[in-house]
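Key idea: predict the complex, not the pieces.
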Amino acid sequence: MQLKHEAGAPPQGGEIATAAIPYLEIRNIQKSFGGVRALKGVSLSIEPGQIYHLMGENGCGKSTLIKIISGAQPADAGELLIDGKPVGHLTPVAALAAGIETVYQDFSLLPNLSVAENVGLTQQLVAASGKLARRLDLKQMRQTAERALAAVNLPTSRAFLSTRTDELPMATRQLIAIARAIASDARLVIMDEPTTALTKHEVDNLIGIVTRLRAKGVAVLFVTHKLDECKKIGGRAVIMRDGQKVAECDIADHTKAELGFWMTGKVLDEARYRSAPKFGEDLLSVDALSLKGAFANVSFSMRGGEIVGITGLLDSGRNELARAIAGVAPADAGRIRLDGKDVTPRKPADSIEAGIGYVPEDRLSEGLFLEKPIEENIVVPVLDRLRGAFGILDGRRSRELAKRSVEDLQVVTPDVANPVQSLSGGNQQRVLIGRWLTINPKLLVLHGPTVGVDVGSKDTIYRIIQRLADEGMGVIIISDDLLELLQNCDRIMVMRKGEVVETFEAETLKEEALYRALVEETTARTPQ
Amino acid sequence: MTDTTFNGAAPDGNDKASLGSAWRWLLRHPPVVTFSLIVLVCLVVGTINTDFWQVSNLFDILRASVVRGLFALGVLVVLASGGIDVSFTAIAAFVMYTVTMLVTNLLPGLPMPVILLVAAAGGACFGALNGLLVHTLRAPSLIVTIGTQYVIRSFLLTFVGTALFMNIPGSMEAFGKLALFTHQSANGSISILPAFVLVLAVAAAATWWILERTLMGRAVYAVGGNPGIAERLGYNLRTVHIFVFAYAGLLAGIAGIMHVASNRLANPFDLAGTELEIIAAVVLGGARITGGSGSVIGTLLGVVLITLVSNVLILVGIPSTWQLAIIGVFIVLAGTVFSLRARG
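Result:
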């Protein structure tokens, strides 16, 4: 899809200017973190009964804006008005008391508390103005929870009410988070990336809930970067880029390409990076790999130079499969062969030795040593090969290796001695890829390779991936970014409920078809 | 829950399924494991030495559980909030010694309820200081309370005194002697259940009520479950931190006075070094060291188990030096069983 720059000047709000006072008005909100200006003066009006889509790339400031509206963080400057009255800065309890409810992307459920407590406690906390020396009204808590759970079509049995939330599947947890948001008299419900864990049926259920809320005059603000879903739900688009609101418009009046252009500042390029793949010998064969409670009977094989994508919803088992191949969380049955040798890993070191590099999804907690120099982060897996006399690390060779790696992967840094945390997300990701390239892997497993990476860096990372495959390396990409998979892979496997249910040739595949396969249901998933 | 098709216990035969669900039920109710260990110890000891089955033994165990129990309830509340406290013994020693000294020297006629009130308030102040430090310094509570433990103990021994108080105030002595039940056994020996066990009962009931029936209690577990989320949802972390440590301090203050009343002497060197044993009792009762769980009933059972092992193994000829090993094995055992919960 190509779009010319004459998409026109982005429209700026005010099209539905009404005489009525908006429910929530934010004026010229600014926020900085250290030297970084996350919000450079954003204004927005929220009318009752309207649906809004706050759209933008990672790092555009939309999460910061949500945190300010929900009281999680104070703004540095600017005004917040509720029903036309200035409210100063909001605390979490004050925001809740004003009717602003947030369904966070991580659901923000307390894992060790029951469903009833997660849904019903907030209301009592707000009623007590955040003061904790109050008696708990168990009956009221249960009734609140029952009402809210019924509204999102969840069961209201005693057994379900007393279940700990960490024992429930993702989709149910999300509905509980929504139930909590609507348990009290919400006037604005903010939903942060609400559809990443949902099947089609569950998305429809969510849309039904939103429609009902709207009919009651509740405003709903979706935070998202999924253009397809925004178009389907309808409402107003508020588009942010680089800490500023760049456009506000009725979502139906503009094409996906236009919206995408405003979000990224770039013409959306959906062209495939993959061209003329050359496949080598059989490389990997995964045979009936299973991990109880995560995935079952996963079998596939791939050749050198091939790029295989794996996708699925959050609880489809895709993440666990990636970790099992990398030996981080080993499978409990089945085997993995690389070049015909059984290399089924029991621990990460097994995978490394076999020549499997694994770039984890969460760079920060699973991958990088943030305070350590770039150099040390890159040479970690090959320390024993860099030993010089008396087993002491050969600093010169280590530095050379790191420098070569940094140049090779176009990491933007003046010095490999700088700590990794001085780099942007995209550059950090490249350091992590560079680390695994030092072991000359036969197979590289990339888990969410562009999560939290800006558009420019995405392009660089995709080009690196393609080059590695051209050089004969096998690459597995686990991702929920469908476009990313379509642009980069030869084959795409879709997982549902722990099983690989479909495998597509990527070249001829349409995003819609892939999305459908992703959210399709095999059996009802509503808990009893 | 029709979770996922391959998840959970496969219904391959009723026996296996019911065994599996019984096991899961057990993991969700850790006090049952603790209780089973208590029964096991009783049966083993009672079989080898029938002298075990005596009312006097029961009374001894209850009496010895009071101070430990008060400490453990405080530790439970701190653990549930995701923190840890090792300064409570120092707080108890400071409060018991200082209060005993002040009452003896200045107000010998002070009635027991007032003494308890003063001790509770003093302990709570020290505890609140812990909470304030933990919250404002954003430091791990283990480190902070190791620090305050040393400071408090050193302050006590340097500035307050090191001499034993053998003659404790009359009201305290009388309180320690007050009997709830008196039992005369067949051979004529008399055993007494002291009334101060009621202090533990009241403290346990109050702790249960706070944890289960107030917003504060739920906030404690919420913060222990995930402090970041709890803060986002509007729970005030500062209030929770100060409350849990102040409450632990309050119970420590009362425990100190109970210790003096039952031993009829105030020794500033007492109680030091028993912190780990108390924390072990709470963990044996099913609280996770990482926070967000634990119950009053489990904690009391954990205390009884520890006290039982320390008191009765001598009856079956196991030297007291071996008690620690047995407690150690129990802790490892319980720790393993309870960690299975996390792995599902």
